[in-house]
Structures are given as C-alpha cells and as structure tokens.
C-alpha cells in the first residue's frame, strides 16, 4: 500500500507504532504468559497461553493484511469494539482464577499498552479512511 500512497512522516510513524502495539498485544502478551507458565510450571496457564499465541499469530497476520497492507476499516473497527470487551471479560476471568492482586499487577502492565494500541488504531483508521477516499476517487476517474 505504501507504493500507492505518499504517506507523511507522521502517518508512517502512526502506522509503524500501530504495527508494533498490535504485535505486542496479540503475540507479545501471550508469549510472556507462556514463558511465565513454564517458569511456574503451571500446565493450565501454559495451554491457554499457547492457544492464545497460535490464535494471535493467525490474528496478527489477518489484521496486518486487512488493515495495514490494505487500507481496511471494517476489521479494524471490529477490533476496536471487541478488544475492550475481550479485555473486560479477561479481567473478570483472571480475577476469579488468579486472584485480585495478580490481576491488578497484570493490569498495571497491560492497560498502558491497550491505551496506546487503541489510540494508534483510531489514528490508523483515520488514515485508512483517507486512503479509501483516494482509491475511490481514482476508480471513479478511470470509469468516467
């Protein structure tokens, strides 16, 4: 997509930060969970982290392709809606299983990354909307 559009320095920075934050949330956190579960020798956490990691690899590729490589808006909007819901359900589940103190410690680490990802996702959505307008204008000019 970058060959079609001349992104400004700021837009390139936003896209790069979105990619990094998405990678951290979708692959990094499950990987950290897997490492801790191996260290703690907790098989149930290891299974959950491993399944999240594999799902994250597919999810990362999918959102990368549909949102970063191509200026997609629908999938990004879906992730913007579903991620806070998933986070809230995860907090409730973790508080029941792990206890409130461990959940709060995890949240202190995770919440800043979620806020960063959410902000960059909104900015990327704005960029992708502009890209889609350019694509539509080019298509309309070819038809006429």
Describe this structure in words.
The chain is mainly α and 144 residues long. It has helices at 9-40, 43-69, 74-98, 100-143. It has one domain (9-143). Helix 3 runs antiparallel to helix 4. The radius of gyration is 18 Å and the shape is elongated. The two termini are 24 Å apart. The mean pLDDT is 86.
Mean pLDDT: 86
**Spatial shape:** elongated
Distance separating the two termini: 24 Å
What is the helix tally? 4
Strand tally is: 0
Q: What is Rg?
A: 18 Å
State the major sheet: none
- From the helix content, strand content and strand pairing, which structural class follows? mainly alpha
| Whole-number count of domains | 1
Helix content: over 70%
**Low-pLDDT segments, ≥5 res:** none
Estimate the strand proportion.
under 5%
Run of helices and strands? HHHH
In short:
The protein is mainly alpha-helical and 144 residues long. It has 4 helices and no strands.
